[in-house]
């Protein structure tokens, strides 16, 4: 009966979001309260569980996600992203232009939130299309595959960062493993898959034209790369030092502090404020205005994460998570495959990768601890599943369709299948590393 109850609650959540068009945050709150009541929890305890779930989930994430949004926004507004793109284009040349765009999307996609990176990269894609007279989808899909993989696999993006917190994983190790799995995934879903899409015709809409930052106003190449990738550099260095010198107490203490995700992002934003802002001709009020706009951009993402945390806490406090974990353990599926599958099913039903990943985490988390699953690999497995088959209930699907001016059929043939390849390739990479580690 409890499992039937949670099944009905998840169905209600799906209906509220997909059919009723209710905000995911409000849907999560309603379903969390209803689930607690139906599972026999005292009403007062239900309200406390919801509040605790919101607080515990957001406590370690607000700083990381907000600062990540600020850094990404400044990278875009300063012209640093365009500088990075220009360097990559010159490096690869016309013959390997696809690979250049793919690498550009991956590098820019690490610090940038998905929607920001998407909108920023579209003008670059079409400028290449017009310059070399190449098919737009064939040229652009590898870059967008890079952005999508970074969004689903790599912290400090919202869903992977939240999964790191929920599974108790090490963010630096998760980032390194995520990059190792992401590279072959992007190659398969990008340049290789795009070979089948040369026949799709697409033209940009004037509505989506953006004004590039003039070359004279952009930051330099080294400055752009270092500022955009500083979080990656700091996390990688501190992780490597802790592995290389585990007996050095002073070093372990200092690297633990510097390597804390919130501290990493704060350092990166402070450095970028000077390197991409003040040193690039912007005043402090202008930089702060960019940061304010960035915070607004992620406000709803934070609320969705909070709502998912509330539902997770209710399921945990009711005893359902433990019961569900016990029953799921009887399945023959390995935990990593199970986490991927749950996220994939929720993704197909709800459309949101973030909601799919966080909801799956609440169900699979007890198994991670009980069966000693590598938490970093579980983060990536759930992240890969959360990207499965994007279709009409996913905003990203419509972004791609409208920007490239495609039919529904061609959007499914290109975008939806690309996301599906990402999901399966990501799972394959996780399982391979699970055999090695």
TrEMBL record:
Q: Give the molecular function GO annotations.
A: gluconate transmembrane transporter activity
Is Transmembrane helix set as a keyword in this record?
yes
Membrane-crossing segments per the record: 30-46, 58-76, 96-129, 136-154, 174-194, 225-245, 257-278, 298-316, 336-361, 373-392, 412-436
- Give the record's membrane topology: Multi-pass membrane protein
Q: Would you say which domain of life the source belongs to?
A: Bacteria
Q: Name one GO cellular component term.
A: plasma membrane
Q: Identify the keywords attached in UniProt to this record, alphabetized.
A: Cell membrane, Membrane, Transmembrane, Transmembrane helix, Transport
Task: Name its cellular compartments.
Answer: Cell membrane
Family that this chain belongs to: Belongs to the GntP permease family.
Name recorded for this polypeptide: Gluconate transporter
